[in-house]
UniProtKB/TrEMBL annotation, chains A, B:
Belongs to the homoserine dehydrogenase family. This is Homoserine dehydrogenase. The keyword NADP applies. L-homoserine binds at residue 188. Its cofactor is a metal cation. It comes from Malassezia psittaci. GO terms for molecular function: homoserine dehydrogenase activity; NADP binding. The gene is HOM6. The lineage of its organism: Eukaryota, Fungi, Dikarya, Basidiomycota, Ustilaginomycotina.
Amino acid sequence: MHVIGLQNSKKTLLASPGNRLALGKNGEWKQVLAESSMEALPLPKLVEVLQQLQDQNKRHIAVVDNTSDDGVASFYPKFIQAGFSIATPNKKAFSGSLEHYSAILHTALQPETIQKGPLVYQESTVGAGLPIISTLDDLVITGDRIKKIEGVLSGTMSYIFNEFSPPQGSTRKFSEIVTVAREKGYTEPNPGDDLSGSDVARKLTILSRLIPDLANALPEGFKSVDTQSLTPAGLLDEKDADTYVKRLPEFDAEFDEMRAKAQANNSVLRYVGLIDVEKKVIRAGLQSYPVDHAFATSLGGSDNIISFSTERYSPRPLLVQGAGAGAEVTAMGVVADLTRIAQRRF
Amino acid sequence: MHVIGLQNSKKTLLASPGNRLALGKNGEWKQVLAESSMEALPLPKLVEVLQQLQDQNKRHIAVVDNTSDDGVASFYPKFIQAGFSIATPNKKAFSGSLEHYSAILHTALQPETIQKGPLVYQESTVGAGLPIISTLDDLVITGDRIKKIEGVLSGTMSYIFNEFSPPQGSTRKFSEIVTVAREKGYTEPNPGDDLSGSDVARKLTILSRLIPDLANALPEGFKSVDTQSLTPAGLLDEKDADTYVKRLPEFDAEFDEMRAKAQANNSVLRYVGLIDVEKKVIRAGLQSYPVDHAFATSLGGSDNIISFSTERYSPRPLLVQGAGAGAEVTAMGVVADLTRIAQRRF
């Protein structure tokens, strides 16, 4: 594998035909890119230039989209049409409208595209480097029938509820835990973006589209997922992050009440994603689990956990657990995807 | 993918050039094979015939070894030399002597072999269809450093100790649980074959050879693993399975004592495999775990669980759990391997 191009929102670096980019030692690439004399290319121009390199080098090209940008995601059909593979942790393309998702599939399935052999891998969109997408793919491709997928899919939500509602119970305030999580950098700059549940809804969209029975279930993508926002009604219009956090204690009583109810039932609260294939339910929201359930006992830190119940894996499910966010484990998923592309196309 | 040949210890079926085998509907293949007029071919002859088919069909051939036979395993270098890929749940080739294992690698790495493109996949040798080998491969290939692998790797041992030493404690006798397990078909015909720990030692051998720092650690393969046999000293010479089981109650007191010691420490007993890379320890044996440890709380039935502690996945490990034995989940791993071969070579 050679790196032949790098682009961020400001600058571009391109290798000359037949060569790889000179990026210096570990980590120096950032500066090399910043000092490039070439302004960032508009995406149509970038595709054109990469196609020329492909024609000259006679080697397969893979695009790694490490942004979380809608604009780049909307360009996937063009990349694929040009014959480029894609490896990405960007959830936008696969969790948006069914129309855009179908356009990607449709492009990939055109005979003249298939001939160029582009592949699309997205392991890190759910659970970062954890083997989640690949496991679901293997279950489906080998003829298993998925019955239910259930999991703690957001590292931020995991941390918040592991602290707020541990198996042994707690009296800590919800607002205090969110504030600490924000200070530690576990949340988005505005914690409301995590508490909305849309990150979990996006991951559920990606997973459900890999299940044949649900491939067309969510016309508007993550917006079609039944999602419980944890932002209190009184804060829904609060756009300023600092004010949002400052006012959160006003609503602690609501969260205390939910926790007390769970504790009275010897249960904990977890914010989970649920896909029930038979009932065609796809939902993101708070759920209570008995204190001896894996989601209560086994989780810690900002771990993700996901449980696949299938015709083969039942009554006991297949479980995958571990860190589901962070630069290193996300990069692992992307590089493993790139390796799979290299094994199949170079 | 086409099936072009089937062979068991008695009979062989071969397709004519350009055709696939006619195997009837689901499940009928067994009878079709049994009624074949062709006696099972000696392996050298089989390779020769398959090579002719490969030359005529101009298509890549994969051998699926669904035996647990040493003789077939010892033939892998010949398959690979002929350019055939291998997908197998058979542990014998990869857990035997380092010499044989190295011969397989050496053959695969000869320039004239590489050109033919054979691939070797063995997901189902550890944990059946659970993503264990592929996860370890991805960790290593993306540059992570494995620190420790620890797991309940035998479905039989899992069942026995989940029953004998649950988190809430138990007074059931070891011999009684083994007897029930045998009646349910969870053990080998002679439970002594499970209690010897050699199945776990074989799996540890396979895993450790995928870790660069330990690639050459076990010259005699599974025999070099530090393995604790659970067969009581007084039964080591008992070869008759029925007598073995009948005499097991004589030794219940030994097991009661170990359990009492664990329970006094608020712990459970589990038969685990352990690979400590830094200390270069590779061991199969009984270990006690606190009652709130995942190996105590989360396991049930005959589940396998495996925990990868790495530079990236620490202090909290990456965990994979689920059914680790049985025809369906084993077949899943083999078919997923075949799919990967098909994606890369057909």
